[in-house]
């Protein structure tokens, strides 16, 4: 058995957060002695399925991630545990070593994020337009999590809205980062090499073959911020594929725009921050510490409450976004953290109308 994982005290939600306090022993007794496992699937991570479970003592609902026991899975759990000292990272509650479906597994019990995914929450809101100030507040929460990981020399490598989930604590929504299936510890520049990524959010250096470092997370942050402020991504395939040669070329050259009408009223401060995060050369790109010092983040409560098109775009194209996300999940299932090669499937429908209105003045190269 590996070294015991570290756990801290109970947080304000009543969950045990993972940290450098007391010790959480990986448990060997059957998980069903402590939890009732539901057949309800909550989601699919990079390396395993997430289902609903309930604590038998208090009836509280949790999320259970089922991982085949391996070096990669243990690394995922270890890095997630280390990251869980941050209030904006999903907390790990228990870890069991059990045989599940005749396979030795790690069963990871985590806080259940009842508030849903980031984009879904924005899409479903019914209380007026989503504003630039709200986007700044969300970015601040995400950046707190990323800064925490980078201080621990952990690159998440899969920052995307689907991995940003809300929980409800005292009627307030708390945004938390999850899924450490691609995460890896890195102590120096250009120490990572595996081309693992979600296409929309991938940094140019990750496309290979050069080595890279945790600055790839900053590029992904820039893409997330871009989508938060308009509802569509800065880089996409003009022909509806998950990724294409033309899309890769635009990513490598940092070719994107701030088109009207969606960007007409967005502040220059926001655009400048995105430009700093989407610099193609990693050494010129903002670090997480540069981002955290940026006034658009630091003074987020003073960011103008400019109404954005984001909610409208996401509502109009919500089903299509789900189609894209589902395809990305299928594509990611072909990747693992240390694989030397990867396969990206194309979308079932080659003509992806989610992005069709962005094509009018562009041709695939």
From TrEMBL:
Reaction catalysed?
L-seryl-[protein] + ATP = O-phospho-L-seryl-[protein] + ADP + H(+); L-threonyl-[protein] + ATP = O-phospho-L-threonyl-[protein] + ADP + H(+)
Q: Where is the signal peptide?
A: none
Keyword Kinase included in the entry's annotation = yes
Annotated residues that bind ATP are located at: 65
EC numbers for this chain = 2.7.11.1
Q: Which GO terms describe its molecular function?
A: ATP binding; protein serine/threonine kinase activity
Using the record's annotation, list all stretches that form the Protein kinase domain. 36-297
Give the InterPro entries listed for this entry: Kinase-like_dom_sf, MAPKAPK_C, Prot_kinase_dom, Protein_kinase_ATP_BS, Ser/Thr_kinase_AS
Give the GO terms filed under biological process for this record: regulation of cell size
Task: Please name the top-level EC class of this enzyme.
Answer: transferase
Q: List the keywords (alphabetical).
A: ATP-binding, Kinase, Nucleotide-binding, Phosphoprotein, Serine/threonine-protein kinase, Transferase
Q: Which family does it belong to?
A: Belongs to the protein kinase superfamily. CAMK Ser/Thr protein kinase family.
PANTHER family noted in UniProt: SERINE/THREONINE-PROTEIN KINASE (PTHR24347)
Designated name of the protein? non-specific serine/threonine protein kinase
What is the phylogenetic placement of the source species in the record? Eukaryota, Metazoa, Ecdysozoa, Arthropoda, Crustacea
Encoded by which gene?
MAPk-Ak2
